[in-house]
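Justification of computing resources. Each target in the renewal requires a structure prediction run like the one illustrated here; the chain below, 178 residues long, is used simply to show the kind of job we budget for.
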Amino acid sequence: MKKITAFFCAAAMSSLLLAACSKENEKSTLHLRLTDAPLSVEEVNVEILEVRVNMTGPTPSDSPEESSNGWIKMETNKGIYNLLELQNGIDTLIGSALLPTGTVHEIRFVLGSQNTIKENGVVYPLVIPSGSSSGLKIKVDKKLKADLETLLIDFDAALSIKKEGTGDYKLRPVLKVK
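Resulting C-alpha cells:
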C-alpha cells in the first residue's frame, strides 16, 4: 500500500512540475496597432523609430536604452505616420513580438525628429518634449494569453496637440489602450 501511495504522490508531483514548466515556456504573439481620433488640420506626422514593451513592471529610468530591466524591443515598422489617416476605424500595425506569457506593464514609443503638423497648406515642426530622448510611455498592465494578442493604441491628436502663443506646435500625447 505504501508503494502505491508513493507512486501516486510521485506521479502527482511530476504532473505539477510538467504543468509549471509548460506555463513558463508559453509564448504569446503581441501586435500593437495605432489609430487616431479626428482633428481639424490636414496632417499630423509622427516618426516612430522603435517600440518596446516592459514585462517586469515600472522602471525608475526614462532612458529608452534600458534593454535590461524587462524592456523588450519589438519588431517595429519604422516610419512617419500621418495620424489623420488612422481615423474612423482605420489602424495600422506598428510592431509585433513573440513574448513570454505574462503581463505587459508598459509600452514605449521612441520617436524621431521628423514630426510635423500641416495646417492651411503650411507644414510646421511638431515639438515633442522628451519624445526623442525618453520616448512616449504608456501604462498598460495587460496579461497576455498563450496565443495572439492585439492592443490598439488610440493616439488622440485632438487632445495631444497644443498651439503655443509663439505659434509653435507641441505634442503632449494622449494615448489610450483599447
